[in-house]
RNA polymerase sigma factor
Amino acid sequence: MTYADVETDAYVTQLALKAGRGDRQALDEFIGATHKDVWRLLAHLSSPDTADDLTQETFLRVLGALPRFAARSSARTWILSLARRTWVDSIRHDRARPLKSATEYEDAQATTPTSNSWSEWVDARLLIDELPEERREALILTQVLGFSYEEAAKIAGVRVGTIRSRVARARADIIAASTETNSGEDSPGLRAI
């Protein structure tokens, strides 16, 4: 993390504190400063299609929680933790809903991409999507969004060692799945993950 990043985080934290005390302009600036990060995290954890709804839900929660924000961590870390919880809650909600009808299931299967002409990053994304939720989250936070292991641990609410092991296992899972898919030839882009 650079000095500019630390300075930006400090500024965003100050905006959150002011917004929590009722400053509307600070609230607008805080939302503007964090919206993109929240959407990116949720798009990677779920999908770009659902990221908009989850982002909106996150900011509704933020509005209720801002008065209690005490700056024990940076506001960016705090809001991404709320976004993560929103995502987890959406998964729980989806699992509690009845299974799709046969027609919906067949429609979903028919629209599943099967072409080998997709670019390599789509293949990587599909492999990442197949990871268990905890490993996918750790990998996305550290390798895609660029958070340090310490920051990712705060966002996920776990220890740093847990994040490190989840990332290592996620990488191993991706390499194994890639090897199975490509008959022993893993692609250069996947080795970078």
